[in-house]
Every structure is written in C-alpha cells, then in structure tokens.
C-alpha cells in the first residue's frame, strides 16, 4: 500500500490566531502593526521592539528592492496566514508585526515651546489614526488621551495612522482635567475647539507652548473639559456643510497653529 505524497516542509514557524479570531493585542496585550507604511516605519524606529514579524515573499522582495533595513528577521508566510490573524477587511499588503508599545513621555517631559493635541473621548480608531498621521506631518510633540474611552494604539488605528505612531508619542492620563491642569503648570496655553465658541480660531491667540483640545464627533468637548481650557474657538465653514470630521478639524487647526507659530 503506497503512502500519500508528503507536503513539502515550510521554513516558516506556525502562525497562531488570536482568541476568537481577533488579532492579538486588541485587548491591550501586544500592539499589532500591519500594512506597508506602519511596518516600514516600525522597522526604521529603533525604539520599537519587535516580537514577531511575518512577511509574504512578494512583500519581502519589495522591502529589499526599496532598500528598507530589515532589522528583525521575518518568518516568510503565505498571504492567507496573515489574513487569519486580522479582520476580514484588513489590508495588510503581506506585512504583519507584533511589537512592544513605544515608551511614553510624561507631561512634564514636554518641550517648553511644544505643540500637543488633547483628545477628549475620541473613540473611533479610524479618526484617531488619521489625527496621528496629521500630527506627524505637523511635528506635533505628543497626543494626550485618557486610559479609558480611547482606542488602543494598534490594528486599525495604526493602519490609519500610516506610520505616524512611530513619530508622535502618546501620553495617557487617568483624568483629562488633571492632565489639562498639568499642561497649564508647564506653561501650555489650552485652546478647545467648540462649534459654539464665541470666537473663530483665526481670531484666537495661539502662543507656544500650545495644546489644542478636540472633542468627539457629535458630543464635542465635555463641560468639564471646557472649564480647563484657556480659550474656546470655533471653525466657521463657508460652504453648505458647516461641520467637519474631527480628523479634518484637527488638520485645519494644526495648519492655523503652525501658521501662527511662524508669524510669532
């Protein structure tokens, strides 16, 4: 009786699914990074400690062709092996990393002329990821959010940030009001974006160091958060649609603040 043909052995180590089919790290365990820009930026960041790196043959070839330094030897896998680790709609482009969280500074470590964003219970990881990407483009020194009511810096957020997580540190605080108090103690001028504010953002002083405070879509800034801002400002839109997605509002606010900083 002849034996059935044996499948060729793979050099790759086995790939394990997260609990319930969810990617590992979504519960605050191990940050997950996938997709071209998040993974390439993580590979280039010596502060990012990589635990596992999976890559398809095509993705590895592209990394080598583009001269990306591969400082952690990947396991070569098939695309389906990565598919099984991620949600069905995740676009991983053949690259997947499990890594340690990046070290986070304290508010007292912020620069004396810094620019920071403060997020008041913005929970959508797509929005936060887009904010991180914009913050990296405007050289924001840190993003401050709460331990609760904010998404983890992994998965969808990291993908939406398109590598920005490697350039903008997160500071998490237990109490946002206390965090805003600490910013004031460090000399930061705190400007909250509020659609009902009496002044337009263009008319408000934006001295450095500066903290721009953003609220969740729909709810906006909480009443307690408003109390700990030095000024409130709105953004008037000339078109038929008066409100903006919070990530778009962050981009405009950072542009106005950057322009004000250059003219100061």
TrEMBL record:
SMART domains: SpoU_sub_bind (SM00967). Keywords: Methyltransferase, Transferase. One of its GO terms (molecular function) is methyltransferase activity. CDD domains: SpoU-like_RlmB. GO terms for biological process: methylation. Residues 32-105 form the RNA 2-O ribose methyltransferase substrate binding domain. The keyword Phosphoprotein does not apply. It comes from the Bacteria. Residues 1-29 are annotated as: Disordered. The keyword Methyltransferase applies. InterPro entries: Alpha/beta_knot_MTases, Ribosomal_eL30-like_sf, rRNA_MeTrfase_TrmH, SpoU_MeTrfase, SpoU_subst-bd, tRNA_m1G_MTases_N. This is TrmH family RNA methyltransferase.
């Amino acid at each position: 009786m002849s034996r059935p043909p044996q499948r060729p052995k793979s050099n790759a180590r086995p790939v394990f699914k997260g609990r319930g089919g969810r990617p590992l790290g979504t519960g605050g365990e191990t940050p997950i990074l996938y997709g071209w820009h998040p993974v390439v930026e993580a590979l280039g960041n010596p502060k990012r400690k990589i635990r596992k790196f999976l890559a398809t043959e095509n993705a590895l070839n592209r990394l080598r062709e583009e001269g990306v330094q591969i400082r952690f030897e990947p396991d070569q896998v098939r695309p389906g092996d990565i598919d099984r680790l991620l949600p069905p709609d995740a676009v991983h482009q053949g690259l997947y990393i499990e890594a340690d969280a990046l070290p986070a500074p304290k508010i007292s470590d912020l620069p004396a002329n810094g620019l920071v964003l403060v997020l008041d219970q913005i929970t959508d990881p797509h929005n936060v990821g887009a904010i991180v990407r914009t913050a990296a483009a405007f050289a924001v020194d840190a993003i401050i959010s709460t331990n609760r009511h904010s998404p983890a810096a992994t998965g969808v957020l990291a993908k939406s940030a398109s590598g920005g997580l490697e350039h903008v540190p997160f500071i998490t605080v237990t109490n946002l009001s206390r965090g805003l108090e600490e910013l004031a103690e460090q000399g930061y001028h705190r400007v909250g974006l509020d659609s009902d504010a009496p002044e337009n953002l263009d008319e408000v002083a934006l001295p450095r160091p500066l903290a721009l405070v953003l609220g969740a879509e729909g709810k906006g800034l909480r009443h307690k958060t408003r109390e700990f801002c030095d000024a409130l400002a709105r953004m008037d839109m000339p078109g038929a649609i008066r409100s903006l997605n919070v990530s778009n509002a962050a981009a405009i606010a950072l542009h106005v603040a950057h322009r004000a900083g250059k003219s100061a």
